[in-house]
Amino acid sequence: MDMPANPVWQQRLFLGSWKSGNGEQINVTEPATGEVISQLKAATPSDVDRAATTARDAQTQWVAVPFDQKAEILRKAATLLKERADEINGWNTRECGSIGPKADWELQATYEQAQMAAALPMQPSGEIFPSNMPGKRNYWKRVPIGTVGVIAPWNFPILLAMRSVFPALAMGNCVILKPDPKSSICGGVLMAKILEDAGLPEGVFHVLPGGPDVGQALVEHPLVKMISFTGSTAVGKKIGETCGRMLKKAALELGGNNAQVVLEDADLDIASSCGAWGSFLHQGQICMQTGRHLVHRSVADEYIERLAARAGNLACGNPAQEQAHLGPLINEAQAKRVEDIVNRSVEMGARIVVGGKRNGNYYEATVMSDVTPDMPVFSEEVFGPVAPVMTFDSDDNACSLVNESLYGLAAAIHSRSTERALQIANQIQVGMIHINDQTVNNEFQVPFGGLGSSGNSGRFGGPANIEEFTTSQWVSVMEEGIQYPF
Ligand code: NAD
């Protein structure tokens, strides 16, 4: 991909339209090479105020835009995503270290979110309730929340921003998006350009690249009525505290440490394929990543052998220049963190079956055995390409190991007996369970979300978006006025 000479975001911020910014420059560093490949303007906390005021003023007009016109804008945005696939995927590869298939998948999933959001404005928006009072009608209707602040992470920066942005807009809200500074081009300014070109009225959507100070200013701004946050549990808790204090709605989609359970009657070829995909896709930097492989003792050796063979075939490389299964991790700090977790677990008795080496920002696909629950590779969210395998002896034992984690995002269960797998599913406390499949599952039409330390039960997708991005209002109408006793 050729770097644009004068990109639209040069020196500018998208505050409902392109405005000059006076914040610092963010250097966009390519994780594969360490090269600075572009620059963009960071927002400042005072830009949050500018955006929130503009959005408040724009929202009345946006709500009044007829539903078919809102739908048309979102459909046009979907079309532009496809038309600009090369540009968007190019940035996803160079800015975020994504391999081609990951970038393609993310774009397709974002396209589906736009198409689904385009269908929302025409959904029924309320119900009629009876009244005991003659001549009185009770309407209960969905209304927009106002301005929604969306704070997104860097790992799937396009999808995880736009899965909130599109439905929030569809339901009549204005949106201020704060992307992560490590992914503000593909997960920020490119999306601003798409919505602008799709015909979204000025002032309705804003993009404020920046760090925690900008995020915090967004969360604390009184004109921002809801925060939709995707990111780490630690930051999500802080945001939840602030929102709680301000009585502000918060949808929190947080970290995970997801288990794949392999029963002794499982198809080990399928299970090991699912395990490899679940652990190594996008270098393991996925909230739904398979972070714990729980395998029945009687088949553990065979499972480990098959999983290790798959891992051993995976090549690390710069996805902008060569075909690679694993690109770089997002930066050196993250790669060193993965290395440290693996090394500390080895010191505690774990064994590296394959992989286990870091080369700059790259980390090999790694399989570990002899893992115990007290090891960091089992108890922490590694966010790297590491597959720790632990054994169990009974279904109850497997369930308690799954539930040992405070996280509760996703789980997978492999068995030739669907009934047995469903019984286990009934005892597992997570938001999403996939039988004979892997943990990294996302379908735009199905509500998505976690429990416990993985989130506060907010849900994205399908009908859940209507509930998530609206509030409700009771309107009653008396045909004629009524006299009260005084
Ligand atoms: P992070 O929490 O560090 O950052 C996420 C976003 O929050 C970024 O935009 C960041 O700038 C912003 N931020 C940081 N501090 C803030 C503050 N004090 N106030 C407001 N905003 C602040 O997370 P990360 O490291 O970028 O992403 C990885 C984490 O996200 C992992 O834990 C992963 O599991 C989780 N995640 C969850 C999901 C999900 O759907 N459940 C999806 C992807 C990633």
Provide a concise account of the structure shown.
This protein is an alpha/beta fold and 486 residues long. Helix content is 39%, strand content 22%.
How would you describe this protein?
- The chain has 486 residues and is an alpha/beta fold.
- The chain folds into two domains: 262 residues, 3-Layer(aba) Sandwich (Aldehyde Dehydrogenase, Chain A, domain 1), CATH 3.40.605; 178 residues, Aldehyde Dehydrogenase, Chain A, domain 2 (3-Layer(aba) Sandwich).
- The protein has 15 helices and 23 strands.
- A seven-stranded mixed sheet has the order 2-1-9-8-7-10-11, sandwiched between helices.
- α4 runs parallel beside α5 and α5 packs parallel to α6.
- The longest helix is centred in the first third of the chain and has 20 residues.
- The model has no long low-confidence stretch (mean pLDDT 96).
- Nicotinamide-adenine-dinucleotide binds next to α7 and α8.
What is the number of strand segments?
23
Catalogue the unreliable spans: none
Q: CATH superfamily of the largest domain, please?
A: Aldehyde Dehydrogenase, Chain A, domain 1
Q: Which structural class matches the secondary elements?
A: alpha/beta
Query: What is the alpha-carbon Rg in Å?
Result: 24 Å
CATH class of the largest domain: Alpha Beta
Assembly type: single chain
Helix content: 25-40%
Mean pLDDT equals 96
Rounded to the nearest angstrom, the distance between the terminal CA atoms is: 75 Å
Structural domain count = 2
User: Total number of helical segments?
Assistant: 15
**Percentage of β-strand residues:** 15-25%
**Ligands bound here?**
nicotinamide-adenine-dinucleotide
Strand count, sense and barrel status of the largest sheet are: 7 strands, mixed
CATH topology of the largest domain: the name is: Aldehyde Dehydrogenase, Chain A, domain 1
Keywords: NAD, Oxidoreductase
Protein name: Benzaldehyde dehydrogenase (NAD+)
Family: Belongs to the aldehyde dehydrogenase family.
Domain Aldehyde dehydrogenase: 18-475
